[in-house]
Design a protein that fits this description.
The protein has 4 helices and 10 strands, in the order E-H-H-H-H-E-E-E-E-E-E-E-E-E.
Length: about 210
Amino acid sequence: MNKFTYDTSSYKFAEILESVFFVKDLSTLHENLETFNVDTDQSSKYHSVFYELAEGHEFFINFKRFIQDEIRPLFDEEMLFQKKPTFRVHMKENIAVGGYHRDRDYNHSEDEINFYLPLTEAFDSNTIWVESEEDEGDFSPMEASYGEYYMWDGANLKHGNKKNTTGKTRVSVDFRVLPKSKYKPSGKKSITQGVAFEIGKYYDELVV
């Protein structure tokens, strides 16, 4: 697991989404929902708004530039990357993703490399908890501020969330990259969006 920093003034991910959601602070999103219908936060009105944004929206233009300028230099071979990042909202007193798991349990390639990009303060019970090595079970929080991100092995390390008792909502995006040499069309689809793990659908190409 590696932690990196980037210049938020160059991308302004949080500020863009604050404008989209009409809020001043993403960590207060829970104040705009009267009730939560389920124990997990994977299908709120904010998810609907995010996934309905056009591919040419400012957020995705900045995301692709982030991939090119920040992620591409980390690799020395041709890579594929997740075209549209996965949007996460970990509401106050809720659990963002139910059940500890490895991404390979949900159709993902074990060769994928994960990136976790918090857009609010991610700490204690409002962030992802992950084991240090496969089957260790020694879970610890991936803590980060806006402007920091992790590269980690979510495909093979068990991870999950706790009930968020911090009083602050965590908003983040995560995405995966895959060495092109490891790409093998499988016919499988992502669980969240039902998108086939194929170039032009789930993946786009990142040429170095």
